[in-house]
């Protein structure tokens, strides 16, 4: 009886806290979006992270509103804006109502230079985010001119790694292979590093960091966040070594063709160089972005093509026509990319079926009204591709893998319904890099192999970033 009394008392206290917290949310008379902030402290983070974000969003759209609802996830009061109208409102009001925001776990993993006594005092968060975005937007590293110079190397690296990992193998797991290839490409392009052994050591670390970016901040041994912290420290240590090596090479006249070289020589308005630890953090963020989403797309592209002989034959015919136009040993060129239209359609359809990233966050700069509701300054906004990409109102037979839906003769998806790279001023700057990496892989793999998916019903795991449970084992048949 004593235990029952204690349990009832605790339940009453919790209910009171929930009631009080919800009452406090409506101060000022503003009409907040419908929804729930969930439990004290935790909010609805557990449901969001462990119940699949797309299901979390879909259920609440149905329960509260198809346009907008409120929640509390990853420690933040958040308005979730849904549908194409929501996407348009968000993308066309960047910098007016919104600025970029990283969830607290991500801030912790990528901001090690903040709060360090030996380091310069950090700038305001908004300025930091703007400066970080400029790293790859201003110098033009991801513009066609720079990517054209890298394309041949991308082709040769991809070809070599495919031969290394798939030659004389009957079964190979695509997910580990795609991660090795994409991390190798990212390290070469961003860092100027082309050491397979060094890169292979980092794959598991980047996996842990990627998962930990959207997790509960419990830094206890065995938790996702703790593993991510350990992995980030290992990556940071390796990057500091790379930075020192790069500085030494540059002192002896080594060319500056990568983003790391630019980061080393760039200075702030006071003429101060960027501290090594800050460079390491920024490069870790760029590598993670250029690695995980591309690897995920390649993996599921291989799955869907492997499950459709019709799609495979169309992709192979397109790629073999390009290969036939080449001399022995000649590498891919920029003009070849424009000839891979159906292959890119297949890639786009893969990203619709399995988005490599479910969504992103923004911070509200000033209070605004949307769909009849007020969203206060300081709240966060979350947008998700899942509110449109499987909606039959926008995509006919949404569960069917159909690359032809993007053909010129078909009705194109309505505006703001297909947004795997975001939109507006903050559209992913690495979109073109990702396109080249994926199509280069596809070109090389269909030239040499046909394949069969071992388990078509393999479970897809992951929360914000999906992955196949068993690594997507595939039977490869070499031509």
Main attributes of the structure:
single chain, 479 residues, iron ion binding, 3-stranded antiparallel sheet, globular, Cyt_P450, membrane, alpha+beta, Cytochrome p450, Cyt_P450_sf, disordered N terminus
Structure description:
Residues 1-22 form the signal peptide. It is a single-pass membrane protein. It is found in: Membrane. Pfam families: p450. The chain has 479 residues and is α+β, with helices and mostly antiparallel strands. The protein has a domain at 31-130 and 142-179 and 291-478: Cytochrome P450 (Cytochrome p450). It is 51% helix and 10% strand. It is built from 16 helices and 12 strands. The chain has helices spanning 2-24, 45-50, 53-63, 83-91, 104-110, 125-137, 144-166, 174-191, 196-212, 224-251, 259-265, 276-306, 309-324, 334-337, 341-353, 431-448, and strands at residues 68-73, 76-81, 98-100, 171-173, 359-364, 368-370, 373-375, 380-384, 449-453, 460-461, 467-468, 473-478. Strands 1-2-8-5-3 form a 5-stranded mixed β-sheet. Strands 4-12-9 form a 3-stranded antiparallel β-sheet. Strands 6-7 form a two-stranded antiparallel sheet. Strand 10 (460-461) and strand 11 form a beta hairpin. Helix 7 (144-166) runs parallel beside helix 16, helix 9 crosses helix 10 and helix 13 (309-324) runs antiparallel to helix 15. The longest helix is centred in the middle third of the chain and has 31 residues, at 276-306.
What oligomeric state do the depicted chains represent? single chain
How do the SSEs run, as a string of H and E? HHHEEHEHHHEHHHHHHHHEEEEHEEEE
Cα-atom Rg, whole angstroms?
Answer: 24 Å
> How is the largest sheet built, in terms of strand order?
1-2-8-5-3
CATH architecture of the domain at 31-130 and 142-179 and 291-478: Orthogonal Bundle
The total count of helices amounts to 16
For the report, how would you describe the main beta sheet? 5 strands, mixed
Backbone structural class: alpha+beta
Approximately what portion of the residues adopt beta-strand conformation? 5-15%
Shape: globular
List segments where confidence is low: pLDDT < 50 over at least 5 consecutive residues.
Answer: 1-13, 15-25, 115-132
- What CATH calls the topology of the domain at 31-130 and 142-179 and 291-478 is Cytochrome p450
Distance between the termini: 74 Å
Strand tally is 12
């Amino acid at each position: 009886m004593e235990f029952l009394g204690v349990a009832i008392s605790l339940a009453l206290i919790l209910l009171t806290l929930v009631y009080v917290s919800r009452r406090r949310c409506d101060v000022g008379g503003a009409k907040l979006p419908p929804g729930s902030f969930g439990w004290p402290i935790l909010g609805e983070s557990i449901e969001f992270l462990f119940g699949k974000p797309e299901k979390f969003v879909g259920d609440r759209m149905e329960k509260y509103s198809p346009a907008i609802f409120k929640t509390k996830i990853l420690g933040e009061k958040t308005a979730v804006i849904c549908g194409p109208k929501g996407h348009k409102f968000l993308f066309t009001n960047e910098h007016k109502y919104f600025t970029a925001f990283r969830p607290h776990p991500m801030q912790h993993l990528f901001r090690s230079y903040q709060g360090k006594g030996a380091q310069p005092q950090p700038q305001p968060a908004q300025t930091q985010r703007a400066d970080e975005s400029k790293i790859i937007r201003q110098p033009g590293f991801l513009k066609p001119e720079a990517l054209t110079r890298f394309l041949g190397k991308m082709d040769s690296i991809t070809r070599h790694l495919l031969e290394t990992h798939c030659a004389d193998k009957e079964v190979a797991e695509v997910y580990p292979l795609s991660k090795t290839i994409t991390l190798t490409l990212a390290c070469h392009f961003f860092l100027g590093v082309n050491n397979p052994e060094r890169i292979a050591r980092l794959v598991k670390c980047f996996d842990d960091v990627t998962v930990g970016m959207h997790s509960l901040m419990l830094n206890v041994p065995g938790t996702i966040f703790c593993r991510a912290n350990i992995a980030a420290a290992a990556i940071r240590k390796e990057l500091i070594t790379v930075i020192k090596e790069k500085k030494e090479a540059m002192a002896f006249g080594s060319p500056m063709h990568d983003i790391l070289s630019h980061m080393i020589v760039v200075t702030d308005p006071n003429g101060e160089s960027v501290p090594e630890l800050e460079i390491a953090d920024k490069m870790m963020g760029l590598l993670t972005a250029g690695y995980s989403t591309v690897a995920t797309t390649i993996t599921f592209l291989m799955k869907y093509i492997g499950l459709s002989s019709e799609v495979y034959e169309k992709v192979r015919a397109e790629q073999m026509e390009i290969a036939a136009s080449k001399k022995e040993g000649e590498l891919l060129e920029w003009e070849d990319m424009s000839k891979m239209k159906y292959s890119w359609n297949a890639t786009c359809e893969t990203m619709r079926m399995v988005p490599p990233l479910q969504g992103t966050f923004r911070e509200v700069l000033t209070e605004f009204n949307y769909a009849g509701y007020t969203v206060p300054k300081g709240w966060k906004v979350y947008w998700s591709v899942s509110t449109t990409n499987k909606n039959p109102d926008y995509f006919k037979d949404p569960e069917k893998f159909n690359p032809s839906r993007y053909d010129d003769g078909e009705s194109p998806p309505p505006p703001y319904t297909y947004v795997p790279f975001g939109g507006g001023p903050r559209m992913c700057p690495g979109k073109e890099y990702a396109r080249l990496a994926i199509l280069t892989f596809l070109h090389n793999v269909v030239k040499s192999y046909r394949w069969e998916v071992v388990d078509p019903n393999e479970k897809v795991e992951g929360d914000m970033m999906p992955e196949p449970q068993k690594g997507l084992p595939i039977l490869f048949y070499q031509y």
